[in-house]
Amino acid sequence: MPGWLTIAKWELMRSKLKFDARSIIMLMMALILVVASSYAASQTGMSMNQKIYLVAFSQPDVQPIIETDQRFDYMLVDRYEATVYYEYGADMAIIGNNVYLADTRKAASAGDALENTFKEYREIVLSSYNDINNTHPVWVTVHDLERPQDFQLAGATDTLDELSRGYNRTAVLESVPGGSEAASGDGSVRTGSSTISPEDIEALDAMQGKTFFERQTIATPSNFNPPVPFTAILYAFLFIFPIYFVSQFYSTSLMDERTNRKGELVLIAPLKSRDIVIGKTVPYLVITMAIQAAITLYILKIPSTLADVERIVLILAAIMPVILLFFALSFYSAILSRSFKELTFASVFLSVVISGYLFFPAMFANIHAISSISPITLIVRLIEGESVPMNTYLFSTLPFYLVAGAVYAFGTSIFREEDLFTQKSIGSKIIDCFEMFLSYRYGSVFFLSIIFIPVVYMTQLMLIVMLFNLPVPYSIIAMIILSALAEEIVKSIGIYTLFKRKISEITFKNAIRLSILSGAGFFVGEKAVAVLTLAPIASSAFGTVMTMGALLLIPLLLHITTIIISSLVMYWKGPGAYKYAVVAATIFHTIYNMTILRGLLF
Fold this sequence. Notes:
66% helix; four-stranded mixed β-sheet
């Protein structure tokens, strides 16, 4: 039996023993109670909005209308009593054909609610005649138009200047179904539905019986709801929340073994560190994937065709790298932290950062190319029946795979007694990871820079998410500065480790040699990742900042020059001046980037 499988079985048994029989029974009873109460509430129509507005009216024919809205607490009285109630506490009075509102914000809200109630009641009455096309002669079919990419550079398909002059506007209008031409096929117009208006009440009920997550495709003018990014947020919450929950158990299990020192028994076993890490991770990974599969089946229902099965597999493939990254960060946090307090802070901070990376771009699903940054956008598109090209899948998920792999590799390298059961500082443990890598036979700053490329890449994508809504000149300037800072840190951290831990002697020759290796490694990795993943936003200003065009020799010289600046500062002032070295290199790097992009900025 493989060693990791033994550890996995032991981890499952150990986790099971944390809950005794009494705790499990209480947990199951609480779950059953929650489900039963939720079902009862849904059946009885209970709501927090029941009877929040008090209305007095004198006409009996108004009562059937008011009764359809549970927000109203009503009284049927004569005209005089209705006036009295209106003067002494009622939010609204209906006397004759007039509606009287009190002078309060609550009464104003009651007036809006009454207006909507009358509209909905009219729809109910009209629908009851079972003559849908005569009672509803006007229907609205929803079609989705792609938003113009207003941050593209000159030379792209639609530049900002062309869009401001109305470029391609006629083609877009003509390609709307029902216009002079069919959809153009260039992606400018996406039809939301081919649905025609219903013939009878049964057809209307079938249309309105869509699931909670389906978008509105046809409606009457009074029932038309503009699209909002609410659905994407719900998808993100449904898929991400179980990952939060399981990752907490995962990191707590690792931390518990460190604090009670039971992990020492595992370390002395004849197993490699990677077998122990894999064994501890696999049970939680399997459980999380099972939960994700259940959620997918709940949304898409049981598959009936091969295409349905393929959609389910693709959705799980899109969420898989997200799970791996969450687990990798939880694993690394559990190793670096010295107490449960530090672990809680690290877990919450990293979860918030990754959640922002996932949630914010997904809000622009089907609206903007930037939405492809988040794997949740892929899930939304797959659920809505759209196809996802392979280059878009790589663009969204490859950073997650690569960063998760790098984090697990560095964490596994210090999965040893010196780092697990000592009170080393977090910074010292991080440097230990790099020292272990550089101490290997084939370890060098060249390969370390390549390994760090996905981290920089993902950081830059996060910056796009954060800076996306700022005005273009300022957002690009901020992107340039922060991207340069991230690049200079990862290029120089290997040299800092060699000098700090005295693995290499601090000499002028070593500073230059290591700088050339580190800069060349970063350049090679940067171009490889750009070719593989940046196609969806390659024509955008943000994509240009990340790749700085197709030049070869000048970017290579730039990376080597900036790392030489960092290395020489450490050579003159020692490793303690590392932060000043990074700042100096960042300033030089920023000046270069702004010079190259001056046409876009000024």
